[in-house]
Amino acid sequence: xxxxxxxxxxxxxxxxxxxxxxxxxxxxxxxxxxxxxxxxxxxxxxxxxxxxxxxxxxxxxxxxxxxxxxxxxxxxxxxxxxxxxxxxxxxxxxxxxxxxxxxxxxxxxxxxxxxxxxxxxxxxxxxxxxxxxxxxxxxxxxxxxxxxxxxxxxxxxxxxxxxxxxxxxxxxxxxxxxxxxxxxxxxxxxxxxxxxxxxxxxxxxxxxxxxxxxxxxxxxxxxxxxxxxxxxxxxxxxxxxxxxxxxxxxxxxxxxxxxxxxxxxxxxxxxxxxxxxxxxxxxxxxxxxxxxxxxxxxxxxxxxxxxxxxxxxxxxxxxxxxxxxxxxxxxxxxxxxxxxxxxxxxxxxxxxxxxxxxxxxxxxxxxxxxxxxxxxxxxxxxxxxxxxxxxxxxxxxxxxxxxxxxxxxxxxxxxxxxxxxxxxxxxxxxxxxxxxxxxxxxxxxxxxxxxxxxxxxxxxxxxxxxxxxxxxxxxxxxxxxxxxxxxxxxxxx
Length: 493
Hints:
Blueprint: H1 2-40, H2 47-53, E1 57-67, H3 83-97, E2 104-115, E3 121-124, H4 126-129, E4 134-138, E5 144-153, E6 158-163, E7 187-192, E8 200-211, E9 221-224, E10 236-238, E11 244-251, E12 262-266, H5 267-280, E13 286-287, E14 290-294, H6 297-302, E15 311-316, H7 321-325, E16 332-336, E17 339-340, H8 346-352, E18 359-366, E19 369-376, E20 378-379, E21 397-399, E22 402-406, H9 409-415, E23 424-429, H10 434-437, E24 445-449, E25 452-453, H11 457-469, E26 474-481, E27 484-491
Antiparallel strand pairs: 1-2, 1-4, 2-3, 3-6, 4-5, 5-6, 7-8, 7-10, 8-9, 9-12, 10-11, 11-12, 13-20, 14-15, 15-16, 16-17, 16-18, 18-19, 21-22, 22-23, 23-24, 24-25, 24-26, 26-27
């Protein structure tokens, strides 16, 4: 009996020990597999991928002729008013009148690009080929070809070139990837021509998405820490599948060299622009016909909106798509064609990407409630705004840290105001007051207060008294500055 018990004890200890060893084996196996899967996502080398992609990446060389002011370089400097000054000027003018050819300086610039078709269509940045008289494309194998400009889009800084291909050569090319599926932390590689050194490969990760760097209305850059320098402009950013997910365009650099903050145009935006340039020679964008601004906390509160979101309409183009649909200044666009507008800067991109002539539903916030409108999207046409800003003398009634008065004929003449402009004018403003802090300036016209048209300062004062009586803490102003209109929410002091 004792022997049996000892045997059972021995078996029990043996089983426990084996079980412990088994757990250790499982633990280290899991560690091994975990380590393996991690390293699988982190390539040991980019060499194979770089070798595959480099032939489709090109250097873009441009030449621009600049006429010298005269035949002999800079005109010699002479003391102002001296006889020599007049002598040299007369001499050089006679040279030009006699038809002597003016020498031309040839300036060169270098950038990067990539081929997207076997016929030799090249994508680069517009600023790489801007003002170019001659464009050359240099392949990785040093072959040099002349190229023609198919078209460009200045707003997104994209240009499309066609290599002159008389011998019907089939060029190596790369494919567009899907930038929307790329994530912060994904590996990327950049290939380009930094400082004119030729094909260079750098690697890094996506540092951020949706960056707005103030370069235009459609900013939506991918940020990367892959080294990008001057000359990389127009070159491709690849994912690990070897597909283009961005066009390297800009860097942030106090010194001019790479500090690990580079920006690329997302492929989904670039692909659409390139397709339109190839088909139409230009970019066709949707147009709503509104001027918009950010919804601040004060504006949201004054319009009884729960949170500051959407795009506030500050002005509507007469007979434009929004005007025809019934939208009004003061409406906040919350949704466009089924896409939420959380931030003002999203709306221009959404509208621009919408097909021209498409009928879309637009949800707006108006007078404390949401309303829907049907809008037929128009085509964007470039417009030019002329801005004038002058300071006028101080006088009249003080309200919210501003000296306000009715608009006089002298004001219209001094500020070159339209005869039809209505409202009250800001004659002076306290530098530390709430109005100045919200960006209001001398010479601004206050057109409306809480969506009520103004004609006198007294009327404005009465509106403020009414708001205070109702317990309101903010007032919504429509400001006209040299024809540009925007809304400003100000706290009532």
